[in-house]
Inverse folding.
């Protein structure tokens, strides 16, 4: 096990390694915490199953009475530890989750690589098999439980061989892995390949074929016999060349429901991803608009899904960009269980090199979500086998905050960041505040130099790091900016692609109107001339130049702040090293994008700064 001790809870106690239940884990954690705290306090635990994942704490004298459901007891223990560690009194605490499923989706392949992973290789797969240090898996369980994450999907949604076999001959290994996480209330989920019946000897994977239904019923029965608390299946179907029901002329509801019925007897769920669009688009075609796709496919199916199918929808209509409006599908599925999907892995948001604290961005989404329809929150994992677990030591914040906000979306983003800093680092208040401000501004700074005014996708193809304004412009992925010498952006109003019509009327009118559309989404919704005036009186072209200069200058200031922080030496060195890479990246973005638009527009910068011709 690597010996990095900087994640938000300090090193694993030996006793925790032997725990078999959340209650035992709660006891071990609290005993260890109070022993170290050495303040003569005691605790008493009682399990009250009726509390489920919830818990209550009450202090009488020097005794903390904690009661909680089977896993609630452990969540209560961690929350009590957090409160006391962070200087709270914890006289009375009571909490229960807003969302029942809080899922981490790993995109780990069995060969040990991680798709869009920036923290090294998989923690549990290597050489096409499970290969892990059990102590590290216990530590992982503990990390997830302390953030109240209760489901881990072990394998990539793009199911590559031999991950298809996780439900067949690799099932005993999966079961052994599940057992390590069980004491922490973490249940496993498996990404499945919709065409599995074909590789198992059937002639079809048609969801309406009886032999296919029988195959999945048997597969589920065997899987749940081996792992009775298996959470369910995660499915990427008919998306980016993955097999799905469309090949048989069946709808996504027909495909998902067939699986839903197979896992129903065991209390399992099928999480069906809505990330479906035409990934072979011709850039010449201006009628097809990728952000419209998910709504067009799934909205007509609202009400057709069985009750243990959850439609998992990415936060925005594109794909985890720095700035996107909320997905209209999330707002419109009235009769379907849905899950929100966010991405901790910083695929488009700096790859754990550039600083990017996500809570402020998630807050924007949580604030508009119709909470009653959302059953689950899922996040693409940012974990890996590297020394810091999340690449950048500060990127652990996003994992922690994800769990906290999936439990209680009302928590203020600044409060959750502050909580994480206090749990992770010991530093004077003034430094803690500096770090908090640095993290709170990090997304804004990254946005300034990479995605001004909602103009995303000007990135290097495939790697998705660094600028390349035309990298995807003449490609087949449907992600165009259509810049010419006069204007940039795509008109997504009723006069353009009609995307805005997918929103409820008020929001539609809000985005449709250039006057009310927020600047940060202007070029997502509108095509705008370079000489058009924005809300603050600047022209579009001047704003593009200014944002890139400002973003880069802000990154330089962040580097200075970082240097001044009293971090543990290992963390400081890594953060400083990565910040140097961020600065290089920010400068490259500034100069490439400014030159790109200068060459098109011919407009001089009003402040006469250097733009390369
Ligand atoms: C797992 C994007 C990523 C892919 C990812 C896909 C998805 O397209 O670039 O790597 O595949 O999203 O969410 O399925």
């Amino acid at each position: 096990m690597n010996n990095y001790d900087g994640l938000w809870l300090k090193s694993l106690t030996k006793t925790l390694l032997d725990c078999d239940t959340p209650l035992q884990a709660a006891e071990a954690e609290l005993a260890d915490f109070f022993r170290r705290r050495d303040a003569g306090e005691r605790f008493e635990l009682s399990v009250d199953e009726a509390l489920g994942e919830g818990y209550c704490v009450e202090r009488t004298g020097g005794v903390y009475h904690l009661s909680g459901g089977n896993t609630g007891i452990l969540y209560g223990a961690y929350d009590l530890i957090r409160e006391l560690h962070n200087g709270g009194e914890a006289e009375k605490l009571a909490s229960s989750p807003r969302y029942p499923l809080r899922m981490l989706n790993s995109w780990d392949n069995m060969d040990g690589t991680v798709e869009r992973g920036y923290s090294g290789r998989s923690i549990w797969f290597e050489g096409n098999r499970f290969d892990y240090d059990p102590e590290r898996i216990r530590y992982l369980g503990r990390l997830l439980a302390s953030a109240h994450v209760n489901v881990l999907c072990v394998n990539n949604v793009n199911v590559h061989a031999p991950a298809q076999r996780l439900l067949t001959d690799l099932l005993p290994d999966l079961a052994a892995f599940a057992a390590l996480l069980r004491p922490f209330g973490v249940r496993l989920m498996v990404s499945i390949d919709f065409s599995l019946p074909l590789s198992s000897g059937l002639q079809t994977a048609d969801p309406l074929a009886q032999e296919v239904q029988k195959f999945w019923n048997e597969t589920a029965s065997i899987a749940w016999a081996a792992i009775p608390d298996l959470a369910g299946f995660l499915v990427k179907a008919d998306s980016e060349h993955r097999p799905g029901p469309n090949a048989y002329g069946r709808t996504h509801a027909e495909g998902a429901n067939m699986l839903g019925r197979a896992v129903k007897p065991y209390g399992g769920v099928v999480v069906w991803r809505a990330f479906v669009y035409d990934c072979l688009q011709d850039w010449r075609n201006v009628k097809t608009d990728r952000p419209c796709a998910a709504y067009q496919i799934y909205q007509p199916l609202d009400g057709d899904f069985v009750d243990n199918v959850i439609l998992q929808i990415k936060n925005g209509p594109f794909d985890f960009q720095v700035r996107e409006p909320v997905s209209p599908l999330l707002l419109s599925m009235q009769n379907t269980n849905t899950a929100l999907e966010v991405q901790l892995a910083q695929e488009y948001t700096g790859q754990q090199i550039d600083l990017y604290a996500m809570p402020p961005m998630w807050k924007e989404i949580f604030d508009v979500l119709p909470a009653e329809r959302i059953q689950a929150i899922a996040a693409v994992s940012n974990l890996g086998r590297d020394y810091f677990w999340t690449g950048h030591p500060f990127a652990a914040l996003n994992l922690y905050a994800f769990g906290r906000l999936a439990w209680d979306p009302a928590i203020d983003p600044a409060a959750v960041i502050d909580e994480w800093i206090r749990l992770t680092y010991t530093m004077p208040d003034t430094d803690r505040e500096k770090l908090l401000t640095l993290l709170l501004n990090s997304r804004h700074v990254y946005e300034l130099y990479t995605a001004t005014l909602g103009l995303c996708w000007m990135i290097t193809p495939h790697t998705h790091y660094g600028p390349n304004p035309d990298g995807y412009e003449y490609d087949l992925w449907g992600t165009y900016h259509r810049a010419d010498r006069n204007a940039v952006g795509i008109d997504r109003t009723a006069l353009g692609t009609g995307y805005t019509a997918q929103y409820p009327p008020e929001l539609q009118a809000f985005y449709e109107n250039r006057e009310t559309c927020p600047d940060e989404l202007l070029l997502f919704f509108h095509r705008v001339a370079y000489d058009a005036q924005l809300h603050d009186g600047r022209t579009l072209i001047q704003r593009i130049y200014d944002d890139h200069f400002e973003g880069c200058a802000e990154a330089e200031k962040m580097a200075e702040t970082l240097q001044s922080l009293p971090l543990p030496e290992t963390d400081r060195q890594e953060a400083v090293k990565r910040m140097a890479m961020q600065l290089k990246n920010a400068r490259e973005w500034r100069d490439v994008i400014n030159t790109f638009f200068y060459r098109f527009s011919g407009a001089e910068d009003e402040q006469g700064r250097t733009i390369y011709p």
In short: The chain has three domains: 14-95, 101-424, 452-490+527-601. DSSP finds 18 helices and 16 strands in the chain. The mean pLDDT is 96.
